[in-house]
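[agent] plan:
  1. take the single chain provided in the ticket
  2. run structure prediction with default settings
  3. attach structure tokens to the ticket
  4. add a short note for the reviewer (M.T.)
[agent] executing step 1
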Amino acid sequence: MNQSFGDLFISYFISYSFIICLFLMFFYTFKNPAKSFWLGRRWMFDEQNEPSKAIIKQYKIVSVIGMVITAIIFIIITVKLFCN
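[agent] step 2 finished; step 3 output follows
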């Protein structure tokens, strides 16, 4: 099925915007794992303690995996765009 240029532009623009936001979120989590741990959780505790070293390590590992996966998806979308 033939899609118009406008439809393709909008779909790729939305895809790129979503992927870039995801990548930036993972990058922020990698750079500031303690701060990202508290996002959305501050209301559950009276005082703010430091997360354990294991939690910080887990957040860093997950953020690196997320950055790699989003980079791969970004490359796949770019190849798909230019090979059509």
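[agent] step 4 note for reviewer: The helical segments are 5-31, 33-38, 53-83.
[agent] ticket updated
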